[in-house]
């Protein structure tokens, strides 16, 4: 019922096509994340309906995504995030399910900004090709022996601002998987506002402030890594309070 509420709301939005989305790529940007319960999403969507258009592809406004993340055997990329390094990377192959497109994507976080580079990939694979490894080495300016370490899937609502140059995403039905271990966050919404520079005049910022929902920093990759690779194997003391809060949000909404 709750899901149907926000699906009904999103159906009332003006739409934006993939071609129009290319004008708002924001591959170099500032990201601000928020986390809240799924039953609040329809209220948020109703409050900002006049300020955004919704991305629609293949007849759906809630497309599905699948991601295969890479790290080395020491989980260096994860630990760089945990240490709060000013310069850190995430490497993944992402599948855009409805369009059946795969991209190898590298996200570089540097001094609060995110720069994303990507190249087309044929499919998910258990190893990186020579071409893919060269692309990663160049982007990271070093060589790392990377291997798959985590699967992630979710659905996403993507909004594009009418007044400001910004994208806003809402991820739901979030799931992490590795081998036979699956962790689900069925009642959690992770929202991410992507802007050229932080602009708190954004309609979404205003609504988050009115609802007393504060920005929240923790990547899906880090959440999944902690949940699936064991808290005894990864340092996570800097993330502990955040992870507990996410679980509280998810469990309270169940």
Strand order of the largest sheet: 2-7-6-5-4-8-9-11
Q: At CATH's second level, what is the architecture?
A: Beta Barrel
Q: Give the CA-based shape.
A: globular
Report the CATH C-level class. Answer: Mainly Beta
| Alpha-carbon Rg, integer | 18 Å
Q: What share of the residues does DSSP label as strand, in percent?
A: 35-45%
Find the CATH topology: Hypothetical Protein Pfu-838710-001
Number of helices: 8
Largest sheet: 8 strands, antiparallel, barrel
- The number of distinct structural domains comes to 1
Instruction: Report the end-to-end length measured between terminal Cα atoms.
Output: 12 Å
Summarize the structure.
The chain is an alpha+beta fold. The protein contains eight helices and eleven strands.
Care to describe what's here?
- This protein has about 250 residues and is an alpha+beta fold.
- The protein has one domain: Hypothetical Protein Pfu-838710-001, CATH 2.40.320.
- It contains 8 helices and 11 strands.
- It has helices at about 1-10, 20, 40-45, 75-80, 130-140, 205-210, 220-230, 240-250; strands spanning about 15, 30-35, 50-55, 65-70, 85-95, 100-110, 115-120, 145-160, 165-180, 180-185, 190-195.
- The chain has an 8-stranded antiparallel barrel, surrounded by 4 helices.
- Strand 8 (about 145-160) and strand 9 form a beta hairpin.
- The model has no long low-confidence stretch (mean pLDDT about 90).
């Amino acid at each position: 019922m709750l899901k149907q509420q926000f699906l009904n709301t999103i159906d009332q939005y003006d739409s934006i096509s993939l071609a129009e989305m290319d004008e708002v790529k924001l591959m170099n940007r500032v990201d601000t994340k928020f986390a809240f319960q799924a039953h609040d999403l329809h209220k948020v969507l109703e409050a900002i309906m006049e300020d955004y258009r919704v991305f629609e592809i293949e007849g759906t406004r809630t497309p599905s995504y699948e991601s295969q993340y890479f790290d080395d055997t020491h989980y260096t990329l994860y630990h760089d995030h945990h240490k709060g390094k000013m310069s850190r990377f995430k490497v993944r192959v992402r599948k855009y399910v409805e369009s059946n497109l795969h991209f190898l994507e590298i996200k570089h976080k540097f001094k609060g900004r995110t720069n994303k580079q990507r190249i087309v990939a044929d499919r998910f694979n258990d190893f990186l090709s020579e071409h893919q490894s060269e692309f990663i080495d160049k982007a990271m300016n070093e060589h790392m022996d990377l291997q798959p370490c985590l699967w992630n899937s979710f659905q996403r609502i993507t909004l594009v601002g009418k007044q400001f140059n910004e994208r806003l995403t809402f991820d739901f039905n979030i799931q992490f998987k590795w081998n036979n271990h699956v962790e689900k966050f069925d009642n959690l919404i992770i929202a991410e506002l992507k802007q050229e520079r932080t602009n708190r005049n954004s309609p979404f910022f205003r609504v988050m402030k009115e609802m007393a929902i504060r920005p929240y920093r923790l990547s899906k990759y880090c959440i999944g890594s902690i949940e699936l690779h064991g808290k005894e194997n990864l340092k996570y003391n800097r993330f502990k309070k955040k992870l507990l809060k996410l679980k509280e949000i998810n469990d309270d909404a169940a």
